[in-house]
């Protein structure tokens, strides 16, 4: 669960329509209307990246009158489907995938099961990426891939489909980088060998 | 009691609160010299508060003399790739001096005219311009200076472990030079296992690649990702050589430069295990303390005696022992919860001054260690930092650093204070901490030299 206290706003007058704010927005809250940025405050998860990125310095953060709570509850989804998706992706349910909001892998998987079709929608539904916007990305992308989502990268460079995990590495990589302790880590993190490579066959 | 050394001056930034007097200048603070604790750690040519940048320039010239630059043609374009944490070391001027000297030598030796500087920054979009202006890089590079970060346009790179994405702007030239620094930094993540390659999956990489490295691999197996990127055809077609600012807890000790990054890494790893290994182990001997952030970068990465605060925060296990699968990180042994802040010796943290989050989450820290923020203005910056919602909710705001220290030490039940203010060559602390460090150093010396260092070296195939 993420509590969003702030939202971005802007003075659209001097906006040049450069789209730099849009490209760094994690929840697709910014759109361009007649070459001016428009912020959908109900989608904004308050990361502030657009404010920092704007070369015209015409954006700012304001406190919301009431915090916006982003979460996907356990009563909203089929728990068995969430567990199955996590197993397919090879991600432990209880780890904090987003270390800024402490959003668990289970909740991110729940967002995918609930219908999130891409990274932007996962972020908007859970509030993940409202902080640093970096470390939570690969697990979320991997869960989307495991669910069979379209992994074609969107126009621009909002995100790229990069999802490789420890469980995907073939034996020749373990041999080539033997001192990387790949097999030792597998034994530590998956001692019962539940996780498999995320091949196309393994996707939903 | 002698007065504390003045810590290195730091770069002003929009990500920082207004500067306030540092603790090192106040009564009750002192310094413990690194070489007093560990005479085996040799001297330095530069520490930020002492030394001559001319020595850094001379060391760079000397190191580059032996480097094969034949991969650079006169009509090539060349990017010198610099990473932001180098500018956090001792005020950043030594790293900047190495970079400027690099440019001069490459131009002179190869007759190449199109040499650019690419400043890889973590998350702050305005930081590259701050670094460029503060260190005078526009003059040194004839205006050919650009910043880059994890959210910039990517370029796909096929590697032995699969397709990864680097930042296009880092590689928008025919060739590049890896201009690095050897700060061991997050030893709990990198485990000093091929640390010299890390930029290839962090500074030069898109956020998806950074996330894969941190979230989908353990801290040991993660070392494969930067190496796979470095070994890729994409990188090898563009790579020319590496130049690394070498450090120890004493300060800058020289420059290492060669085309063989694997050779540099072996040198660095062996040196670090012997020097930083002693300091890290000494930190483990601290049974109780209050830490203070008192510098011009993210608090997590502020130094004391060359070790970052994060090394103290997570220092409940031996990060250099590769038999331990995880010290801190995302992948966890099943049944064990994720926690980055498990050192029970840290009884409190006082934030006198540091950059706000800007992408460094300290989210669980206030759960295990009470946090005290000095000043309402600084506290407001933390309240607006989306990376750290729990810190914002749980920290105590106090008016003065003296009040914060009194509260933190009283509630924490400790009389020992250690200050992370960017210092190399010594540790800024109070007298109680100084006495404790001095008392434990000889035990650490024997333990590291006699038992731990041989094990760490053997685990890495080093002698």
Helix and strand topology:
The complex is a heterodimer of chains A (204) and B (463).
Chain A: E1 2-10, H1 20-24, E2 30-33, E3 36-39, H2 49-53, E4 59-70, H3 79-89, E5 96-98, E6 103-104, H4 105-114, H5 119-126, H6 137-146, H7 171-176, H8 182-189
Antiparallel strand pairs in A: 1-4, 2-3, 5-6
Helix pairs in contact in A: 3-4, 3-6, 4-5, 4-6
Chain B: E1 29-33, H1 34-37, H2 53-65, E2 77-83, H3 93-110, E3 114-120, H4 127-134, H5 137-140, E4 145-148, E5 154-159, E6 162-167, E7 175-181, H6 187-190, H7 207-215, H8 224-231, H9 233-236, E8 239-248, E9 251-258, H10 261-284, E10 289-298, E11 303-304, E12 307-308, H11 309-313, E13 346-355, H12 365-368, E14 371-374, H13 376-383, H14 389-394, E15 396-398, H15 401-412, E16 417-420, E17 426-430, H16 431-459
Parallel strand pairs in B: 2-3, 2-7, 3-4, 7-8, 10-13, 10-16, 13-14, 14-15
Antiparallel strand pairs in B: 1-17, 5-6, 8-9, 11-12, 16-17
Tell me what the structure shows.
The complex is a heterodimer of chains A (204) and B (463). With 204 residues, chain A is α+β, with helices and mostly antiparallel strands. Chain A folds into two domains: 2-70, Alpha-Beta Plaits; 74-202, no CATH class. Chain A has eight helices and six strands. The relative contact order of chain A is 0.15. Chain B folds into two domains: 23-41 and 286-454, no CATH class; 53-272, Rossmann fold (3-Layer(aba) Sandwich). In chain B, 65% of the residues are buried. Classes of the chains: A alpha+beta (204), B alpha/beta (463). Chains A and B meet through β1, α2, α6, α7 and α8 of A and β6, α7 and α8 of B.
């Amino acid at each position: 669960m993420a509590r969003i206290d702030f939202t971005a706003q802007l003075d659209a007058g001097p906006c040049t329509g450069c789209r730099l704010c849009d490209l760094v927005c994690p929840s697709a809250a910014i759109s361009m209307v007649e070459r001016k940025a428009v912020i959908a405050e109900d989608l904004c998860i308050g990361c502030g990246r657009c404010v920092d990125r704007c070369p015209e310095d015409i954006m700012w953060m304001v406190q919301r009158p009431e915090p916006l709570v982003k979460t996907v509850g356990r009563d909203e989804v089929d728990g068995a489907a969430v567990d199955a998706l996590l197993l397919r992706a090879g991600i432990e349910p209880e780890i904090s995938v987003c270390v800024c909001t402490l959003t668990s892998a289970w909740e991110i998987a729940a967002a995918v099961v609930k219908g999130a079709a891409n990274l932007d929608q996962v972020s908007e539904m859970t509030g993940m990426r409202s902080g640093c916007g970096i470390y939570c990305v690969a697990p979320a992308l991997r869960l989307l891939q495991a669910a069979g989502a379209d992994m074609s990268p969107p126009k621009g460079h909002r995100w790229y489909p990069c999802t490789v995990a420890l469980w995907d590495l073939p034996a020749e990589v373990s041999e080539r980088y033997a001192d990387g302790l790949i097999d030792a880590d597998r034994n530590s993190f998956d001692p019962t060998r539940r996780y498999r490579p995320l091949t196309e066959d393994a996707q939903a | 009691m002698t007065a504390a050394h003045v810590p290195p001056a730091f770069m002003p930034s929009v990500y920082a609160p207004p500067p306030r007097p540092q603790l090192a200048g106040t009564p009750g603070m002192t310094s413990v010299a690194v070489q007093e604790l560990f005479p085996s750690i040799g001297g330095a040519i530069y520490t930020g508060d002492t030394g001559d940048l001319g020595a850094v320039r001379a060391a760079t010239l000397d190191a580059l003399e032996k480097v094969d630059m034949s991969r650079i043609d006169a009509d090539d374009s060349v990017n010198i790739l610099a990473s932001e944490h180098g500018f956090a070391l001792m005020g950043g001027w030594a790293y900047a001096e190495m970079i400027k000297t690099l440019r001069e030598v490459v131009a002179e030796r190869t007759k190449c005219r199109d040499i650019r500087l690419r400043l890889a920054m973590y998350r702050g979009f305005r930081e590259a311009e701050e670094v460029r202006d503060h260190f005078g890089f526009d003059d040194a590079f004839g205006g050919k200076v650009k910043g880059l970060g994890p959210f910039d346009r990517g370029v796909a790179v096929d590697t032995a472990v699969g397709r990864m994405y680097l930042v296009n702007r880092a590689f928008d030239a025919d060739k590049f030079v890896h201009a690095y620094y050897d700060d061991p930094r997050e030893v709990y993540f990198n485990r000093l296992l091929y640390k010299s390659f890390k930029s290839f999956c962090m500074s030069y990489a898109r956020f998806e690649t950074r996330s894969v490295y941190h979230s989908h691999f353990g801290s040991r197996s993660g070392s494969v990702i930067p190496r796979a990127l470095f070994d890729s055809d994409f990188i090898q077609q563009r790579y020319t050589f590496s130049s690394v600012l070498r450090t120890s807890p004493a300060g800058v000790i020289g420059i290492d430069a060669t085309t063989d990054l694997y050779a540099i890494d072996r040198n660095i790893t062996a040196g670090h295990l012997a020097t930083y290994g002693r300091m890290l182990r000494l930190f483990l001997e601290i049974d109780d303390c209050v830490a203070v952030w008192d510098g011009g970068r993210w608090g997590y990465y502020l130094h004391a005696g060359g070790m970052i605060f994060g090394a103290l925060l997570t220092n409940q296990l031996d990060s250099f022992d590769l038999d331990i699968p995880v010290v801190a990180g995302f992948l966890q042994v099943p049944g064990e919860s994720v926690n980055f802040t498990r050192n029970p010796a840290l009884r409190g943290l006082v934030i006198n001054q540091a950059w706000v989050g800007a992408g460094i989450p300290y989210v669980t820290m206030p759960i295990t260690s009470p946090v005290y923020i000095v000043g309402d203005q600084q506290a407001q910056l933390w309240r607006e930092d989306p990376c750290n919602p729990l810190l914002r909710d749980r920290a105590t705001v106090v008016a003065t650093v003296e009040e914060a220290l009194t509260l933190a030490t009283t509630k924490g039940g400790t009389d020992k204070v250690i200050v992370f203010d960017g210092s190399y060559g010594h540790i800024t602390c109070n007298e109680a901490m100084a006495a404790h460090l001095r008392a434990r150093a000889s035990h650490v010396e024997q333990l590291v030299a006699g038992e731990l260092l041989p094990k760490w070296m053997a685990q890495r195939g080093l002698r």
